[in-house]
Model the fold of this input.
Amino acid sequence: MEDSVIVGRHAVKEAITTGHPINKILIQDGVKKQQLEEILKHAKNQKIVVQTVPKSKLDHIAEAPHQGVAALVAPYEYADLDKLLAQLKDKEGLPTLVILDGLEDPHNLGSILRTADAAGVDGVIIPKRRSVALTQTVAKASAGAIQHVPVVRVTNLSQTMDQLKDEGYWIAGTAADNATDYRQMAADMPLAIVIGNEGHGMSRLVKEKCDFYIKIPMAGHINSLNASVAASLMMYEIYRKRHPAGE
Done:
């Protein structure tokens, strides 16, 4: 199995501190060691091999800005849906999942994972086909959140939505027509929020499986938001409703 690559200081540090299996850390020749002090300290404590390499080596293996450091790691493992749902049954409080219907931009997925971690979302579900996967670009954009938010990869989103309904989840799709203002949506039940493709929105089958639809009002001239921004608003609105200010 080939190594995957994590690049960037925050992403590498998070991978080390969360115990992700790391085979080797690559440091750019000439980078001041003080800037990587925490990474080097953790690497020494965990007996991880650290190798100094020319910048051209990091440029060659990196798909994103590397900030002079990269880690060669075992490929990211996807979470198992059945195990995740079983764990959430024992969780205190109401669970929240995010379903991404055909998202293609790795920066969007990384940003969604970062916000999901911040907003206490329990997991993200993506399809195997026609969708971005977990890559080093996603890891870099997530600023380490990829280590904390379970990502489930499924063969059929429609069937997965049926399974979630059987488990008591209500599924809310993001749509412009016949939809409730997101500030008025209910959040007092297990929820799965569907975010559609950047260009085409939700697919027909996925849209038909939703229990209700939510929209974000637009006061300007552009009639849509970036997928990660829309997802962030939804996730934090759920958080706001379940955790009123002052609690």
The mean pLDDT is 90. The chain is about 35% helix and 20% strand. The two ends are 47 Å apart (CA to CA). The longest strand covers residues 22-28.
